[in-house]
Design brief:
The chain has about 425 residues and is an alpha+beta fold. The protein is built from 13 helices and 16 strands.
Length: about 425
């Protein structure tokens, strides 16, 4: 099982070795690489490339550097807006049942290498804490050296790191396998899923396993994308059927859901800062853009009926558990059902034409102006369907949009589930000041 000078470290062979023997070999390879000497075996190409980046970037091989940890609020905010949040069940179901919970830890990090979720037994989590492998930590390669999270992000491919293949010596008692997760809609790197544990847990099949689960997660995102296009198509097709000229409906990434008067295109590249109003789209020319639930309606300018965008919103809160927002524009109208939280938020904005800051909305919803993370995350979801109708800084309905609020006949029946201070005041017929005490 011995290596000869000039041979390359092989994952299967070192995994079959005693853990201490494998660690000694890899430490010898690393020490020779740092000293510029001939190693007992050549490091694997992906590890050698990472080490070169670390040496060029000035990462200290024996000093465990740390960047600032995210606060709990910052971590939660990143969780709320991360597309990885949608596929956590797939990652958990694919990895956790087969993990030895006492020896392994599953980690999900965002595209910057920040750890957002972590699962495992308390004993192994405590060991990970001592290593700085905690939620909110920065495990970018340029910060902590070669590792299964940061190196997978840089290489944009699955990476397994054993013992002294970690550039920083404090990580040598661990082994990790990380695989990147991409957004199938645009190829954007979303983050990494990683399985780590003590050196004795190293196994060559771990990387294939983690990579397969990452692909399953991407497949789930793709299925969700197709389902969202189908929902957009169901809303857009009746509108397009009534429109003369050329028009199409696309999702926020430019994927086409429905089209009229044009040759179908799978995807339309949308310009930066894309939004409602008059917009130049390279593939189409001058367009009038209107919001749709989960996307946009693009009408090629010059065709009949392209002079106006969405002009009116009817917020109907009159029927219990059947709240809706209906948007009217030149192309017709469409409705969006509202969740209890979104009904509360839109009610508050309808009651305040000047708008509300996130802190003001948090105070009105929860009686706590510090809960801005939750407010911003929920409004981000609302604006996916009502983009162009809602603006921010402060949050409000757009100035050129007429808003009609339909309340229940009995004031006590207004959003009866709600415990928001502002809604309770409205039920009792008391006006709020809108000012945080």
């Amino acid at each position: 099982m011995a290596y000869t000078a000039g041979s390359t470290v092989d994952v299967a062979r070192i995994s079959a070795m005693d853990a201490r023997e494998a660690a000694r070999l890899l430490k010898g390879v690393r020490a020779a690489a740092l000293a510029g000497d001939r190693p007992p075996a050549e490091p694997r190409p992906e590890i050698a490339e990472s080490w070169r980046r670390m040496l060029a970037g000035g990462v200290h091989p024996d000093r465990d550097a740390r960047s600032r940890m995210l606060s709990a609020a910052e971590t939660e905010e990143r969780r709320q807006v991360s597309p990885l949040r949608e596929i956590l069940p797939v990652l958990r179901e694919g990895l956790l049942p087969a993990l030895d919970a006492a020896l392994h830890i599953m980690v999900v990090a965002d595209a910057e290498g920040r750890l957002l979720w972590r699962e495992g037994a308390s004993s192994i989590l405590h060991k990970a804490d001592r290593l700085g492998f905690a939620v909110g930590a920065d495990w970018a390669e340029a910060v902590v050296g070669t590792n299964g999270v940061g190196t997978a992000l840089v290489a944009r491919q699955p990476v397994q790191v054993f013992s002294a293949e970690h550039f920083v010596s404090s990580h040598h008692d661990w082994t990790c396998a990380g695989a990147p997760v991409r957004d199938p809609r645009d190829g954007r790197l979303l983050g990494v899923v990683d399985v780590s544990g003590p050196l004795a847990t190293m196994h060559p099949a771990t990387l294939t396993w983690v990579s397969s689960v990452a692909r399953l997660a991407e497949r789930e995102l793709r299925i969700r994308h197709l389902e969202s296009l189908e929902r957009l198509r169901a809303v857009a097709s009746p509108l397009l059927a009534r429109l003369p000229g050329q028009a199409l409906a696309v999702d926020p990434h430019g994927w086409t859901a429905a089209v009229t008067g044009l040759a179908p295109a799978e995807r339309i590249p949308l310009p930066k800062g894309f939004g409602p109003g008059r917009v130049w789209v390279a593939q189409l020319g001058d367009c009038v853009v209107e919001p749709l639930p989960g996307g946009w309606l693009l009408r090629v300018a010059g065709a009949p009926g392209t002079s106006a965008a969405a002009s009116r919103v009817v917020l109907d809160l009159s029927r219990p558990r059947a709240w809706s927002a209906t948007v009217y524009g030149a192309a017709g109208s469409w409705s969006q059902e509202l969740s209890p939280r979104h009904a509360e938020l839109l009610f508050l904005l309808a009651e305040s034409p000047r708008g509300r800051s996130a802190a003001e909305l948090a105070a009105e919803l929860f009686g706590d102006p510090t809960r801005t993370v939750t407010v911003r995350a929920e409004l981000s979801r609302v604006r996916r369907h009502l983009g162009g109708v809602l603006t921010h800084r402060p949050y409000r309905f757009a100035d050129d949009v007429e808003v009609e609020l339909i309340r229940p006949e009995d004031p006590a029946a207004l959003l009866p589930h709600s415990t928001a201070p502002a809604v309770i005041r409205a039920r009792l017929g008391r006006a709020g000041t809108g000012v945080i005490p």
